[in-house]
Amino acid sequence: MRKVLGPSFYSRPAPVVARELLGKFLVRRVRGRELAGMITETEAYEGLDDLASHASRGRTPHTEVMFGESGRWYVYLIYGMYSMLNIVTGPNGHPSAVLIRGTDMVSGPGRLTRALAVTKTENANRATKETGLWIEDRGTRVPSRRIRNTPRIGVAYAGEHWAAKPWRFVYDPDDVS
Hints:
The protein contains four helices and nine strands. The protein is an alpha+beta fold and 177 residues long. The longest helix has 8 residues.
């Protein structure tokens, strides 16, 4: 079973979507070839109050996509060299997104976007086959006991409350414990 996830999947709170993306497949069509990896690590960013979120500074040209319809990509550049791939979640007008941090084929958000040739040109595109970048449910079951919740990475600037939020979700498909 290969089902492309649609806007209704993403139209929920970012922490819920982030957890449920584990085990889904990030798919990229590059030069007529499909590359796919099972999502194993995500981070949630939820609303204007989340000081770790770009949206906490308000609606700007940079963050506009986060305030729009769910199921669109929010791609931005950090350190002038790494694209970060996020999927917009929640209802229209409520800025939230999930950062895709890794798959079973590539760990680390910058390495992931490089491996899949994802750049800012994908920003604001819908997550559909037509755009060449989407997420599929292939029926993989992810047992709750194999999901770890941890604080998000690299957000100490947001203050202790927001930095400590356990909104990073990690699934190790090889962990047999």
